[in-house]
Design goal:
With about 525 residues, the protein is α/β, with parallel strands linked by helices. About 40% of the residues lie in helices and about 15% in strands. Strands 2-1-3-4-5-6 form a six-stranded parallel β-sheet, sandwiched between helices. Helix 10 links the parallel strand 10 and strand 11. Helix 10 packs parallel to helix 11. It is globular. The structure holds cobalamin and iron/sulfur cluster (SF4). Iron/sulfur cluster binds next to helix 8.
């Protein structure tokens, strides 16, 4: 049977990182079936196109995974596929919580023939076999012989064949520039960001987050060896195609067990498996100097920190009181000293937020080493404690907000400001942080750092800007580059001057050794 695994596009940003679930399920597919992957963020498709595709490619089963924000598109695509007679199974965090919605049991239309609840590592092979035998059930749940929920241990993690998988759709380098960039240094013919997980689960239970409910509070890890082998495979692929690979460790809290993280990082260093990587780590765990040393030595370049708010009352409200705003600056300084940057994520529209929250946050950020601030709105995702609290209080203004997804729009009224005011705060945060002046200032504030470090900041800022300000298409990019030309050309000029100086030095050294 030919199986298509499809991830719908989010309709807002071009997401350059593939979704891990597709590769994992492909690796877990029983022998004898062929799996095709399409990520809508890399290969946009509409309903007619996907229906044509499944018929033309003789697909016998389609698996669709989606976050809440993409679920409306996922349902539309599923409807089009089912209309041409191909069965659809859906999985992922949204349908796990809203299975009745996907199966048409809550009053709306049916979108899926079957739903995989929770982690599907063990149910996926059963789903494929049932589909091949025309015997799909409606619901697949990961349970043991006694009907108790059972989470995969991750100790037997399937090797993902990154060395042979077709990753063409995930190359960030434009095709035209590939031949030239392949020759640059160790090669830049391809640049891919690859998701890797080293463990699952988070016990912290922040009110707005689905992770503790979905993956559970029991944390499970892969073996160090299986993670190191995966990094070595990726590294080998990058060098064989004269390209670059960066890894996103998608664990929700990569250092949740500090002892184990340190041991993994030591093994990465010992095996010379370092690649540049990003990971998510909560601020409280970055107090440990030795951990930060190991992060830098093992290839860590960016750490995503869910700071959420600079107001301790807000943090307490959402059960994230373990974040201490008073130590944010020290944490970021500790990282910056080792040339590791931070992606600092903030949520506006919390219950203690009042107008001016963006400016108050920005004035704090100003005192920190430059990183990548991102701003979002408090969003009640289905089945989270936040959703339940707001629903019980009658505060949801769009209780089924995912059915008509609007980016950066609230679905409930905050207590101390209006919805429009919260939207304006987010807009102000992005506009102030990603204006050409702010980008120039961020790059200038690390003038004492090596050129590569500053180029890294510049490129990351230009890309992150696109999360809020649509930057899809050549014209939008051209405009962004034109607006930031001073900063861009300043760094290019410096790069050429440095190269000239190096050549001149080499000639002088050559001449003096001859004389
Ligand atoms: C990596 C990641 C991202 C990446 C993007 C995704 C990518 N390219 O990988 C980035 C950093 C960009 C991102 C951004 C956001 N993310 Co995010 N992200 C994650 C994260 C940390 C890991 C995802 C992952 O790969 N997990 C590991 C895999 C193995 O698990 P999985 O995807 O759930 O798949 C398993 C099962 O669900 C199931 N399954 C999944 N799909 C399918 C499909 C089929 C057919 C079947 C059978 C089974 C199946 O099988 C898999 C194996 O067991 C998760 C949290 C988490 N730990 O999952 C949040 C998470 C998915 N993100 C979340 C959110 C809210 C966001 C944002 C909206 C945040 C924001 N406010 O801006 C943005 C929006 C992104 C966008 N532009 O669309 C939520 C989604 C909750 C929800 N109900 O939708 C999560 C769960 C975290 C949370 N806080 O609750 N994210
Ligand atoms: S620490 Fe992060 S992953 Fe864990 S519950 Fe809080 S927001 Fe979710």
């Amino acid at each position: 049977m030919r199986i298509l695994l499809y991830n719908p596009d989010n309709g807002v940003t071009r997401n350059f990182m593939p979704h891990l679930w597709m590769f994992l399920l492909k690796a877990l597919t029983p022998a004898g079936h062929e799996v095709v992957l399409i990520d809508g963020n890399a290969q946009p498709m509409d309903e007619a196109a996907i229906a044509r595709f499944v018929l033309h490619e003789k697909i016998g089963l389609v698996g669709i995974g989606a976050m809440t924000r993409m679920i409306a598109k996922a349902y539309r695509m599923a409807d089009a596929i089912r209309a041409v007679g191909v069965p659809v199974v859906m999985g992922g965090p949204h349908v796990t919580e809203m299975a009745d919605e996907a199966l048409g049991r809550s009053g709306g239309p049916r979108h899926a023939d079957a739903v995989a609840l929770g982690e599907a590592d063990e149910t996926w092979p059963k789903i494929v076999n049932d589909a091949a035998n025309n015997a799909l059930k409606e619901i697949y749940a990961p349970v043991d012989a006694f009907g108790q929920e059972q989470k995969p241990s991750l100790q037997e993690y399937p090797p993902i064949p990154w060395d042979t998988i077709d990753l063409d759709q995930f190359n960030i380098v434009p095709k035209l520039a590939t031949p030239m960039l392949r020759k640059l240094g160790a090669g830049w013919g391809t640049f891919r960001i690859i998701p890797v997980e080293s463990g699952r689960g988070c016990p912290y239970g922040c009110e707005f987050c689905t992770v503790t409910g979905f993956f559970g509070d029991s944390i499970r890890f892969r073996t160090n060896k299986s993670v190191v082998d995966e990094l070595l495979l990726l590294k080998a692929r990058a060098s064989s195609e004269r390209g670059q690979i960066a890894v996103f460790f998608i664990d929700d809290n990569f250092a949740i067990n500090v002892k184990r993280t340190k041991s993994l990082l030591r093994d990465i260093i010992a095996a010379n498996a370092q690649v540049h990587w990003v990971a998510q780590i909560s601020a409280n765990l970055l107090r440990d100097e030795e951990l930060v040393d190991l992060i830098a030595a093992a290839g860590g370049k960016w750490i995503f920190i869910g700071m959420e708010s600079i107001d301790p009352a807000n943090l307490k409200d959402v059960n994230k009181g373990f974040n201490k705003p008073g130590e944010y600056a020290a944490v970021l300084e500790r990282l910056a000293q080792r040339n590791v940057f931070a992606i600092t994520s903030f949520i506006f529209g919390m219950d203690n937020d009042t107008t001016g929250v963006a400016d108050r946050t920005l004035s704090e950020i100003q005192n920190w080493p430059p990183g990548l601030p991102i701003f979002g709105l408090l969003t009640p995702l289905p089945a989270t404690p936040l959703y339940k609290r707001l629903e019980a209080a009658g505060r949801l203004t769009r209780p089924r907000h995912w059915q008509e997804f609007i980016p950066f729009a609230m679905a409930h009224t905050p207590l101390k400001m209006t919805i429009d005011e919260a939207h304006a705060e987010v807009k102000h945060g992005w506009a102030k942080s990603y204006s050409p002046e702010a980008i120039a200032k961020a790059v200038g504030s690390v003038a004492h750092k090596p050129l590569g470090y500053r180029i890294n900041i510049l490129i990351a800022r230009l890309c992150f800007r696109g999360i809020y300000f649509p930057q899809m298409g050549r014209f939008a990019w051209f405009k962004t580059i034109a607006e930031n030309r001073r900063t861009i050309f300043g760094l290019i000029k410096e790069g050429f001057a440095g190269r000239r100086a190096n050549v001149q030095n080499a000639q002088e050294v050559g001449a003096s050794s001859l004389s």
